[in-house]
C-alpha cells in the first residue's frame, strides 16, 4: 500500500523491461517518460554503478518516425528541462494538489496528484505544523525550524490514507512507523528533491491559472533502507484471513515471491486502482552513486523486534519472527520398533511362535516318556474310586442342572398349548414397547459419549454460538483434458491444467447459475424458496439478494459475469506488447486475492460479487499434482436444524434403504435353511411327515420374538439368529438321535433330552448375556446400546426356547407320531409306515472321515503348531455405497484438497475480557502476553506436522484492538446517546491499546471505510465478564465466522466473515481411545465367559481356560484378517468384535461341555465323541445358519453392509468354525481334563 498526494495505492509490477532498464525517449535531461522512443538512441538505466546514460535497444522504425519523435521530444523538452532541475537539500520536486490523474479512468478512490514545484521547502506554521506533528512527527524539528514540501490539504489526505492502510499494519508498530515514514518522506520531506525526480507531467488550466501536475516520478532509495522497511512488514498478518498483509501489497507475486523491490513497485503502479500516479522506485546499493545531485534516501528504520519508543512495545511474535522466544521443538516420535531391518513386532511374534513350538515339542516328548502303562479298565476304576473335589463338584452341578431341566421339560411338554399362549402374551406385551423406540441416526449421538470432552465442547459451542453453517460443495473435474503452457505477459510461461480452460469455466459458470436459480415450493412459507432465502450473506444478512450469498468458486474472480470472463485487452509490459485475458487475471488473483483491481488492462477486481475475497484453496483444489474446481456455498442453519453436514447421514440411510431387499433375501435364505434342515428324512413316502418346516418356522418366530421383546430388531439379528438357531439344532438333533426308553412317555422323553442339552444351552446363553451386559459399561453410545439389546435378546431367546420352543417340539412330536403332514396337520397319512432312524449325512461324515483325519497324531501336532496373529489399523471411510456420490466426494477430497478443517478455541464462561490482563491472555497484538492463547497457537503452527495446525488463529479480541486504534477510521456510535464514541486510548500510534476505562458502550456505526471491506467496520465490541463463551478463531481454515456471547450491559459482539467449509466430526474422538475401549470391552466380555464356563462345568478350571484361549484366538485371528481384507478398526468393527465373542461362545462352549460330559476313558476318545456328536450340531446350527445369509450380503451396494456385515461376519463365522471344529478338538485331546468327572457321574446314573 502506498500513499502519494491525497491517497494511497498499490504498487506497479514489472515497471522495467527484462533487463532492468527504463526507456525514456527524450533528449538529454528529463522528459517524455516510459514507453517512448529516443531520437538520440539513449535510455536512462540503473546499473551496478548507479544511474547513467547507455545505448538504447529501441530505434525508430523509419526516418519519418524518427523526425516526429525528435520534434515531439524537442517540444516536450522545453518543459522537461524545468521538471526537477535542482537536486539539493531544502528543495521540493512537487507541492500542493493538481486534481485527478487524467490517465486513470477507473479508480476505486478519488486520486489527486501533486503539482510540479521544484522550489525551496516551505516553513510550516499554525494548523499545517500541528497537522504535520500529528501525521509525520518524525519530520518535526521545532516550532520555527520545521520545513516541508507538503500543504495542509496534502497532510489531511495523507492522514486519511494512512488510517486505511495502517488499520492492517498497526498490529506491528515498527511496520506501521516505517510504512508511514516512507510516504511522509516522499510527500513532505524538506529534502524531497534529493531522492525524487519527476519524469512525466500534464498541464491543466484552472481559475488560478495554468498548473502542471505530476504523472510520474522516480524515487531513489538506499537498498538497505528499503530492505529494512520491507522486513519489518513482511510478517504482519491479517488475523481475519490467516494470511499476510504483504499478500495484498505485492500484486501478482503474493507473499511467497515478494521482495522489497516488488513491494515498492506494486505500490507505485497506478494500474492497481489505488495509486494516484506512477512511481519508479530505484533501489541503489549502499556505495552506489547516481550523479546529477541525487542522493538515495536512507532514513531511519525501526526493527519489528524492538520498541519504537521508550514507552512502546515491539511487534508481537505473530507478526514478527524476531519477537518470538526460543520455542523448543516437540519431542520427536520414537522411531518404529525394528530389529535390524525387520519389523520389531513381527520379529517378537516369530520368536514367540518358535518358542511355543519348541515347548509344545518338548511337551510331546515328555508325554510319550511318562505315559502311564495302566490299562484303561483299571484307569477307569481308579478314576471312579479317586475322584477329585473338582470332579465331584462337576458331577453335582450337572446332576442338579440336568434334573431341574428334565422336570421343567416334562412339564412344558405336557402342557404345550398353555405354555405357547402364555409365552405369546408375554412377547406381545414386551414388544409393545417398540412404539416408544426413537431411532438415532445422528453420527454424533451414535459415536460420541455425552460426557466426552469433544461432545461437551460441541454442546457448549452450539449452546453459545448456535449450530454451525451448512456447507454445500460441488467438486468438478475434467478428465482427459491435456495440460498446456500459457506464456503470460506478466508472469512468463506457466503450466495450466486441462481443467483451466474457457470451455470448462463456462460450464462451471452455467452450472453455478443454474444452482443459484433453483426454486423449491415451501408449504410453510406459501411461496417458492430460493438460495437467497437460506444462504449466508455476510454483508447483507437482512435483505439478501442472489449476489449477496457466500458462494466461492473460480468464477467469482470475474464476479460470475460471463462478459468479464471473456474479456481481452492489449497491454504493453516493458518492451513487449501482447494480449491479456482471463488467465492473466486468474494468475494475479491467485497471488493477490484481496485486490480490488488487477494490474492488467482488464482492470478487473478479484473480490467476489458478495464483497469478500475468494481464496484459491477454496476455488481451485490442487493436490497430488491434479486440479479440480470447487463450487461451495454456505447456507444458514434452520431454526430447528438437522446436523449441519448431513449428506453423509442421508446417503447412508439411502443406500441402506436400497439394500433392504438384500437383507430380506438374506433372512429368507436363513429361514428356509432352518425350516428344511431340521427335518429327519427317512423315506420319500414319509417326507411330508418327517419334515420340520412348521417347527423351524416356530423356532424362527421364537428368535424374532426375543428380538422384538428386547426392542432392538435392527441391531442384533445375526447374533440372535446364530444363538437361537444353534440351540434349536442341538435340541432337535439330540431328540432325533435319542431312543425312547421302555415305558417312557413322549413328554418324559422330551424332558430327558432337555435335561441333557439344556445345561449346554444355559452355559452359552448365560455367558453371552453376561458378557454383553458388562460390555454396556463402555462410554460409546452405539456400543452400549448394542450390548444392552444383545444381552436382553439372548436372555429372552433362551427363556423362549425353554418354554415356547419345547412346547412346539412336543406338538410336532405328537404330529409326527400321528403321521400327520407337516404344514397341514389336519391331513393324516394313511400308510406312512414306521419311521426309520437315519443319521443323515453330516454325522456319518464326521465319524468316518473328518474326526479320524483331524485327530490323527501328525495332524494334531500340525494343528497345535499353527496360530493366528493380526493387528487392526486406523479409521477408514467405508460408510457409503459403491454407487454413492459421497464415495467420489471423499475420494476427491483426499485427492485434490490440501485444506484441513477449521478449529475453534473457545473460552468458557467466567473469563473477564474487560480488563487489560484479561485481553492480554488471549490476544496476539502488540503488548499481548507471549504465552497468550493465540500466541500459543502461533507457536504450534511452527510444528504443523505435530499440531496439524496450518495457520495461526483469528481472534475477535485482536480485531477489536485494531478497531480501537486511533488511526482507524471506523465509526464508533454510542449505544446510549447515538453520539460519536472515541477510542479510550492516548493519541498517537505507539503504546498498548486496551478497552479499560471506556466511558460508554460502543457499537459499530455506518459509513466510513475500512480494511474489512463492504464500506464499513467490523461488528465488534468488547464484552465484560463472559457469561457464556467467546470463540477465538479458526486455525486450519483461512476464514471463520466469529460470534461472541453477550456480556453484562453489552450488545452482540461478533466479527462477521464468510466461513470456510467445515464439517464437525465430533465422533472422530473415538479414535483417540478406541484401542483402549476395544481392549476394555473385549476383556469385559471374556472374563464372564471364563467364569460362567468354570462355574457351570463344576469349577473345571482347565476346561474354562481352554474355552477362553480358543475364543481369544478367534478374536486375534479376526483382527489380523481384518487388516488383510481392508476392514478398518472403528466403532462398527468393535461392535462386530463384541458380537464375535458371542458367536465364538456358540462355536466353542458346546464342544467343551460335550468333552467334559463324555464317558470315554481317554482325552483323545472323548475329543472324538464330542466332535462327532456336538461338532455336527454346531456346524449345522451355527455355521450353516449364518453362512448362507451372510453370502447374500455380498451383493449389497452399501459399503457399510459389504464391509462390516458381509466381510466381517464372514470372517467371524469362518474363523469360529475353524477354531471350534479344528483347533479346539485337538487342544482338548492334548490338554483336556484327565478324569471323566461329569461323564462318569452321568454313566453311573444311567446304569443305576
Automatic annotation (TrEMBL):
**GO CC annotation, single:** endomembrane system
Where is the protein situated, by its record's location annotation?
Endomembrane system
Give the transmembrane region(s).
Answer: 344-366, 417-439, 660-679, 691-708, 714-733, 753-775, 787-811, 1079-1099, 1105-1125, 1132-1152, 1172-1196, 1208-1228
Instruction: List this protein's GO terms for biological process.
Output: cholesterol homeostasis; cholesterol metabolic process; cholesterol transport; intestinal cholesterol absorption
Principal localisation: membrane
The protein's topology relative to the membrane is: Multi-pass membrane protein
Q: Membrane: present as a keyword of the record?
A: yes
Family annotation (Pfam families): NPC1_MLD, NPC1_N, Sterol-sensing
GO molecular function terms listed in the Swiss-Prot or TrEMBL record: cholesterol binding
User: Is-annotated flag, keyword Ribosomal protein?
Assistant: no
Show the catalytic activity. Answer: cholesterol(in) = cholesterol(out)
Keywords, comma-separated and alphabetical:
Cholesterol metabolism, Disulfide bond, Glycoprotein, Lipid metabolism, Membrane, Signal, Steroid metabolism, Sterol metabolism, Transmembrane, Transmembrane helix, Transport
The molecule here is called: NPC1 like intracellular cholesterol transporter 1
Amino acid at each position: 500500500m502506498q500513499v502519494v498526494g491525497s491517497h494511497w495505492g498499490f504498487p506497479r509490477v514489472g515497471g522495467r523491461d527484462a533487463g532492468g532498464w527504463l526507456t525514456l525517449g527524450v533528449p538529454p535531461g528529463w522528459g517524455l517518460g516510459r514507453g517512448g522512443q529516443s531520437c538520440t538512441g539513449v535510455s536512462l538505466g540503473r546499473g551496478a554503478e548507479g544511474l547513467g546514460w547507455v545505448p538504447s535497444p529501441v530505434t525508430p522504425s523509419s526516418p519519418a518516425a524518427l523526425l516526429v519523435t525528435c520534434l515531439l521530444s524537442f517540444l516536450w523538452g522545453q518543459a522537461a528541462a524545468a521538471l526537477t532541475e535542482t537536486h539539493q537539500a531544502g528543495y521540493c520536486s512537487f507541492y500542493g494538489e493538481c486534481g485527478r490523474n487524467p490517465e486513470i479512468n477507473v479508480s476505486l478512490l478519488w486520486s489527486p496528484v501533486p503539482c510540479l514545484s521544484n522550489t525551496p521547502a516551505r516553513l510550516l506554521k499554525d494548523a499545517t505544523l500541528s497537522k504535520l506533528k500529528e501525521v509525520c512527527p518524525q519530520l518535526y524539528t521545532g516550532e520555527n525550524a520545521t520545513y516541508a514540501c507538503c500543504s495542509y490539504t496534502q497532510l489531511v489526505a495523507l492522514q486519511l490514507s494512512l488510517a486505511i492502510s495502517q488499520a492492517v499494519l498497526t498490529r506491528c508498530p515498527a511496520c506501521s512507523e516505517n510504512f508511514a515514514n516512507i510516504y511522509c518522506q516522499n510527500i513532505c520531506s524538506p529534502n524531497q528533491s534529493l531522492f525524487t525526480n519527476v519524469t512525466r507531467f500534464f498541464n491543466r488550466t484552472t481559475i488560478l491559472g495554468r498548473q502542471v501536475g505530476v504523472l510520474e516520478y522516480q524515487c531513489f532509495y538506499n537498498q538497505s533502507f528499503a530492505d529494512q522497511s520491507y522486513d519489518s512488514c513482511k510478517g504482519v498478518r491479517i488475523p481475519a484471513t490467516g494470511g499476510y498483509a504483504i499478500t495484498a501489497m505485492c500484486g501478482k507475486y503474493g507473499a511467497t515471491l515478494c521482495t522489497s523491490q516488488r513491494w515498492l513497485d506494486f505500490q507505485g503502479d497506478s494500474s492497481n486502482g489505488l495509486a494516484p500516479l506512477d512511481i519508479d522506485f530505484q533501489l541503489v546499493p549502499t556505495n552506489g552513486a547516481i550523479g546529477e545531485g541525487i542522493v538515495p534516501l536512507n532514513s531511519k528504520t525501526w526493527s519489528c523486534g524492538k520498541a519504537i519508543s521508550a514507552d512502546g512495545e515491539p511487534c508481537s511474535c505473530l507478526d514478527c519472527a524476531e519477537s518470538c522466544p526460543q520455542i523448543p521443538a516437540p519431542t520427536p516420535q520414537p522411531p518404529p520398533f525394528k530389529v535390524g531391518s525387520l519389523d520389531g513386532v513381527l520379529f517378537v511374534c516369530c520368536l514367540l511362535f518358535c518358542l511355543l513350538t519348541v515347548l509344545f515339542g518338548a511337551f510331546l516328548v515328555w508325554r510319550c516318556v511318562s505315559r502311564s502303562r495302566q490299562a484303561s479298565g483299571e484307569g477307569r476304576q481308579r478314576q471312579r474310586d479317586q475322584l477329585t473335589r473338582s470332579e465331584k463338584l462337576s458331577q453335582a452341578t450337572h446332576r442338579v442342572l440336568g434334573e431341574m431341566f428334565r422336570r421343567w421339560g416334562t412339564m412344558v411338554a405336557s402342557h404345550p398349548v398353555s405354555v405357547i399362549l402364555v409365552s405369546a402374551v408375554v412377547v406381545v406385551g414386551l414388544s409393545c414397547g417398540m412404539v416408544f423406540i426413537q431411532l438415532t441416526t445422528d453420527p454424533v449421538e451414535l459415536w460420541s459419549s455425552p460426557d466426552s470432552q469433544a461432545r461437551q465442547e460441541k454442546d457448549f459451542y452450539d449452546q453459545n454460538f448456535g449450530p454451525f453453517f451448512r456447507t454445500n460443495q460441488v467438486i468438478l473435474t475434467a478428465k482427459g483434458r491435456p495440460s498446456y503452457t500459457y506464456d503470460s505477459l506478466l508472469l512468463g510461461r506457466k503450466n495450466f491444467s486441462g481443467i483451466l480452460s474457457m470451455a470448462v469455466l463456462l460450464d462451471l459458470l452455467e452450472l453455478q447459475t443454474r444452482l443459484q436459480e433453483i426454486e423449491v415450493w415451501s408449504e410453510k412459507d406459501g411461496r417458492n424458496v430460493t438460495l437467497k432465502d437460506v444462504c449466508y450473506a455476510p454483508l447483507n444478512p437482512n435483505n439478501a439478494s442472489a449476489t449477496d450469498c457466500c458462494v466461492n468458486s473460480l468464477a467469482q474472480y470475474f464476479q460470475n459475469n460471463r462478459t468479464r470472463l471473456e474479456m481481452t485487452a492489449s497491454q504493453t509490459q516493458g518492451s513487449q506488447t501482447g494480449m491479456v485475458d482471463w488467465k492473466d487475471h486468474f494468475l494475479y488473483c491467485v497471488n493477490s486475492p484481496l485486490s480490488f483491481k488487477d494490474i492488467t488492462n482488464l482492470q478487473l477486481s478479484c473480490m467476489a460479487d458478495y464483497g469478500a475475497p475468494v481464496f484459491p484453496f477454496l476455488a481451485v483444489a490442487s493436490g497430488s499434482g491434479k486440479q479440480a474446481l470447487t463450487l461451495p456455498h454456505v447456507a444458514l442453519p434452520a431454526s430447528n436444524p438437522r446436523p449441519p453436514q448431513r449428506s453423509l447421514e442421508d446417503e447412508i440411510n439411502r443406500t441402506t434403504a436400497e439394500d433392504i431387499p438384500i437383507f430380506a433375501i438374506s433372512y429368507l435364505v436363513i429361514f428356509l435353511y432352518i425350516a428344511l434342515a431340521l427335518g429327519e428324512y427317512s423315506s420319500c413316502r414319509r417326507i411330508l411327515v418327517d419334515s420340520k418346516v412348521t417347527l423351524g418356522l416356530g423356532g424362527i418366530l421364537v428368535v424374532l420374538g426375543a428380538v422384538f421383546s428386547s426392542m432392538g430388531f435392527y441391531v442384533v439379528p445375526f447374533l440372535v439368529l446364530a444363538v437361537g438357531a444353534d440351540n434349536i439344532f442341538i435340541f432337535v438333533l439330540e431328540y432325533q438321535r435319542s431312543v425312547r426308553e421302555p415305558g417312557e412317555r413322549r413328554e418324559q422323553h422330551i424332558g430327558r433330552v432337555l435335561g441333557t442339552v439344556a445345561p449346554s444351552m444355559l452355559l452359552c446363553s448365560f455367558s453371552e448375556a453376561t458378557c454383553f451386559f458388562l460390555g454396556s459399561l463402555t462410554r460409546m453410545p452405539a456400543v452400549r446400546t448394542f450390548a444392552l439389546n444383545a444381552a436382553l435378546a439372548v436372555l429372552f431367546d433362551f427363556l423362549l426356547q425353554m418354554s415356547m420352543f419345547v412346547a412346539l417340539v412336543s406338538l410336532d412330536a405328537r404330529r409326527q407320531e400321528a403321521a400327520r403332514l407337516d404344514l397341514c396337520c389336519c391331513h393324516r397319512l394313511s400308510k406312512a409306515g414306521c419311521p426309520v432312524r437315519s443319521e443323515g449325512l453330516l454325522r456319518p461324515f464326521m465319524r468316518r472321515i473328518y474326526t479320524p483325519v483331524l485327530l490323527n497324531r501328525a495332524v494334531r501336532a500340525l494343528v497345535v503348531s499353527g496360530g493366528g496373529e493380526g493387528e487392526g489399523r486406523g479409521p477408514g471411510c467405508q460408510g457409503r455405497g459403491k454407487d454413492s456420490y459421497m464415495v467420489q466426494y471423499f475420494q476427491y477430497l483426499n485427492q485434490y484438497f490440501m485444506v484441513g478443517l477449521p478449529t475453534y478455541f473457545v473460552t468458557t464462561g467466567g473469563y473477564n475480557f474487560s480488563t487489560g490482563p484479561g485481553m492480554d491472555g488471549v490476544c496476539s497484538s502488540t503488548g499481548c502476553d507471549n504465552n497468550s492463547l493465540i500466541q500459543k497457537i502461533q507457536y504450534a503452527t511452527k510444528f504443523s506436522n505435530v499440531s496439524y495446525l496450518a495457520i495461526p488463529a483469528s481472534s475477535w479480541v485482536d480485531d477489536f484492538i485494531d478497531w480501537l486504534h486511533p488511526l482507524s477510521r471506523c465509526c464508533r456510535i454510542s449505544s446510549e446517546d447515538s453520539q460519536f464514541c472515541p477510542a479510550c486510548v492516548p493519541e498517537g500510534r505507539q503504546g498498548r491499546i486496551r478497552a479499560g476505562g471506556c466511558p460508554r458502550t460502543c457499537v459499530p456505526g455506518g459509513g466510513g471505510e475500512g480494511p474489512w471491506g463492504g464500506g464499513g467496520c467490523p461488528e465488534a465490541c468488547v464484552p465484560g465478564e463472559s457469561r457464556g463463551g467467546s470463540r477465538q478463531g479458526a486455525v486450519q481454515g483461512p476464514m471463520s465466522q466469529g460470534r461472541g456471547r453477550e456480556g453484562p450491559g453489552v450488545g452482540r459482539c461478533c466479527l462477521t466473515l464468510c466461513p470456510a467449509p467445515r464439517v464437525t466430526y465430533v465422533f472422530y474422538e473415538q479414535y483417540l481411545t478406541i484401542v483402549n475401549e476395544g481392549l476394555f470391552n473385549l476383556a469385559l466380555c471374556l472374563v464372564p465367559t471364563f467364569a460362567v464356563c468354570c462355574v457351570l462345568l463344576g469349577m473345571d478350571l482347565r476346561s474354562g481356560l481352554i474355552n477362553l484361549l480358543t475364543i481369544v484366538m478367534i478374536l486375534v485371528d479376526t483382527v489380523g484378517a481384518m487388516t488383510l481384507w481392508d476392514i478398518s478398526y472403528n466403532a462398527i468393527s468393535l461392535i462386530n468384535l463384541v458380537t464375535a465373542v458371542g458367536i465364538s461362545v456358540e462355536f466353542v462352549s458346546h464342544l467343551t461341555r460335550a468333552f467334559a460330559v463324555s464317558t470315554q476313558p481317554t482325552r483323545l476318545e472323548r475329543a472324538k465323541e464330542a466332535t462327532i456328536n456336538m461338532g455336527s450340531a454346531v456346524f449345522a446350527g451355527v455355521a450353516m445358519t449364518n453362512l448362507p445369509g451372510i453370502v447374500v450380503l455380498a451383493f449389497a451396494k452399501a459399503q457399510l453392509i459389504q464391509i462390516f456385515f458381509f466381510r466381517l461376519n464372514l470372517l467371524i463365522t469362518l474363523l469360529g468354525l475353524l477354531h471350534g471344529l479344528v483347533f479346539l478338538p485337538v487342544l482338548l485331546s492334548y490338554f483336556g481334563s484327565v478324569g471323566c468327572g461329569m461323564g462318569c457321574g452321568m454313566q453311573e446314573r444311567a446304569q443305576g
